[in-house]
Amino acid sequence: MAGEVRLDRKVLVKLIRKKRKLVFLRNVWWKFIKFKNNPTWRRPKGKDNPMRLKLKGHPPIVTIGYRTPNVIRGLHPKGLKPVVIHNVNELSMFKPDEVIVYVGSDVSLRKKLEIIDKARAQGFLIANEGV
After folding, report:
1. Residue-level pLDDT, tens digit, the chain, 131 residues
2. Are 79 and 9 in contact (CB under 8 A)?
3. Among 16, 65, 85, 126, which one has the highest count of C-beta atoms within 10 angstroms of its own C-beta?
């Protein structure tokens, strides 16, 4: 692809750790008990709302500038692309140094153990190997 940037995995991990992840909470969540129980993000819409107006001393609003850099978006914290595997044959489609394996939740215990053994033998990292 034209303009695609390939970075070393160590650089990706450094970028992922460096990226500051803000938690956006709704306006005046600290003031009312009904919001303390559920402070999830809601866009401030009032005409004179100081948060909407981005006044000093008020929490930040969700904007495009806070988005994760394109190079590291969707990657595992180890700098690998997460992949869900449902059977042993799917392992052959990926390279161990590029992906981290998640075993599908609908896979039976016997098949899950089989997938984990094959993945370890081929050198894959497994994210959810706890049985």
Report:
1. 555 666 677 777 777 777 777 889 999 888 999 888 889 999 999 999 999 999 999 999 999 988 888 888 888 888 899 999 999 999 999 999 999 999 999 999 999 999 999 999 999 999 998 76
2. yes
3. 85
* Separation between Cα atoms, residue 60 and residue 48, nearest integer Å: 16
* Type of residue at 57: G
pTM (two decimals): 0.70
> Collapsing DSSP states into helix, strand and coil, what is residue 30?
coil
Residue that is written with structure tokens 């709302």 in the block: 49
Residue the block writes with tokens 């997938």: 115
Instruction: Determine the residue type at 113.
Output: L
